[in-house]
Design brief:
This protein has 421 residues and is an alpha+beta fold. It has three domains: 9-35 and 394-421, no CATH class; 57-207 and 333-366, f41 fragment of flagellin, N-terminal domain, CATH 1.20.1330.10; 212-327, no CATH class. The chain has helices at 9-34, 45-102, 106-125, 166-171, 178-181, 278-291, 329-380, 384-410; strands spanning 150-153, 160-163, 187-191, 199-204, 212-217, 231-235, 241-247, 265-270, 295-298, 304-307, 313-316, 321-326. The strands form four sheets. A four-stranded antiparallel β-sheet has the order 9-10-5-12. A four-stranded mixed β-sheet has the order 8-7-6-11, with helices on one face. Strands 1-2 form a two-stranded antiparallel ribbon. A hairpin with a 5-residue loop joins strand 6 and strand 7. Helix 2 (45-102) runs antiparallel to helix 7. The longest helix is centred in the N-terminal third of the chain and has 58 residues, at 45-102. Mean pLDDT is 82; it is low at 204-209 and 256-261. This is Flagellin.
Length: 421
């Protein structure tokens, strides 16, 4: 054995072992204190990069969740207001029916109508959340809305969903006030109708204009009765006509005009008789009439009551569709209110569908965020039970390394015995 005071290989080996053990011990102690096995890029560059990308997505999903929550509140505000509006309309319809049967005092009826109109507009105008109102437009001077639609971020990539203003949608006008959009602006109580679209509640004066007509179905309609380019034509008080042409393929025979009733124009109603029932097709006709300046309501017997523009005649190329009786003033008013209820019901359905969509996205966003959080944890979190066991082992190993280094350092002392006399 060679003994040297310049090179102590045993001490060097013991020191290297102690250094490695101390580094490993420091790493384990860091895992125990932070709970992370990958806490920085130095620990594992690849895993750290992946984890940071996933953490970015988690932060993005948090922003998406906030946007969805805000959008949900906008829609819920409009939904609650629409429910109150429907209730008000139902009460108004009951009052109007009673007025027709019992000749309620005109002044009382006028107040009920005015109160109902004011309440409906008030519900709509006050259903503003964070500046967004889905029931009355920014052009409504009585409202407080600054935005006509809700734009909701639905994904970390910036994808969006938009929920438009419902009053504008049912009125085809940018300045829709809800009662106007619902066709209620021409209701009055008592007196004589002074305009083609005016409907009088209760007893009207002599010489009142015809308020509307009924479109009847003498026999049970089949979807096959609606041939391509078949038509239903309304004649207005001024002699002009509006023709609703059913289109099953191709285009209407005349360019469609959706700007409202004008002289002798045609509106295309696109249908699919192979998959839609006759009642569904009549419903599409009602929607088209309502979108083009009339007020129409589909009755339980399949007939349609239509008012507006002093409409007083109906002609049809469909054999089972004919003109019914002219509507009385009370019937016209009830039709107008029924149409308003149908429109508000459609609005409520649209808002309900939006609520379901938002709720689904909220659930998905939460689940995705949880999955990503779990994934980041699996990549970066330390197994503390394993770390605890390893810590005990390394502490023992460190003590042994220190003892080994002490022994190695003491070997140089044995050289002195060689030089003693």
């Amino acid at each position: 054995m060679t003994l040297s005071i310049n090179t102590n290989t045993a001490s060097m080996a013991a020191l290297e072992s102690l250094s490695k053990t101390t580094k490993a011990l420091n790493d384990v102690q860091n895992q125990v204190s932070t709970g992370k096995k990958v806490d920085s890029a130095a620990d594992n560059p690849a895993i750290y990069a992946i984890a940071q990308s996933m953490n970015g997505n988690i932060a993005g999903l948090s922003a998406v969740s906030d946007s969805l929550s805000l959008g949900a509140q906008v829609v819920n505000t409009a939904s609650k207001a629409s429910s109150d509006i429907i209730s008000t309309l139902q009460t108004l319809q009951q009052s109007v029916t009673q007025a027709g049967n019992n000749s309620i005092d005109t002044d009382t009826m006028k107040k009920q109508v005015a109160d109902a109109i004011n309440a409906i507009n008030s519900y709509a105008r006050n259903s503003t959340f964070n500046g967004v109102n889905l029931l009355t437009s920014t052009q409504d001077t009585g409202g407080t809305a600054t935005l006509n639609q809700a734009t909701i971020v639905t994904g970390v990539s910036g994808t969006q969903m938009t929920i438009g203003n419902q009053a504008v949608a049912i009125n085809n006008a940018s300045n829709a006030v809800l009662t106007n959009a619902l066709g209620l602006s021409n209701l009055t109580a008592g007196g004589t109708a002074t305009a083609a679209n005016q409907q009088v509640i209760g007893t009207a004066g002599a010489g009142q204009d015809v308020n509307g007509v009924s479109i009847t179905t003498g026999n049970a309609l089949q979807s096959t009765d609606f041939a391509n380019n078949s038509t239903i034509q309304l004649t207005n008080k001024d002699g002009t006509t509006t023709t609703f042409e059913f289109v099953t393929s191709g285009t209407a025979t005349t360019t469609a005009d959706t700007t409202g009733p004008t002289a002798n124009h045609t509106v295309a109603v696109t249908i699919d008789p192979t998959s839609q029932s006759a009642n569904t097709i009549m419903g599409k006709l009602v929607d088209s009439m309502n979108a083009n300046g009339y007020t129409a309501a589909l009755q339980t017997d399949g007939s349609i009551d239509v008012v507006g523009n002093g409409v007083n005649d109906v002609t049809s190329s469909i054999g089972n569709v004919t003109k019914g009786a002219n509507l009385t003033s009370s019937q016209a008013v009830v039709t107008t209110i029924q149409s308003a209820i149908n429109k508000m019901t459609s609005i409520s359905s649209t808002l309900g569908a939006s609520t379901q969509q938002i709720t689904g996205l909220q659930s998905f966003t939460s689940d995705l965020s949880d999955a990503l959080t779990t994934g980041v944890g699996a990549l970066t979190d330390a197994d503390l039970s394993a770390a605890s066991a390893k810590l005990t082992s390394l502490q023992t190993k460190q003590q042994l390394a220190i003892q080994s280094l002490s022994i190695a350092n003491s070997q140089s002392q044995s050289i002195m015995s060689l030089f003693r006399g």
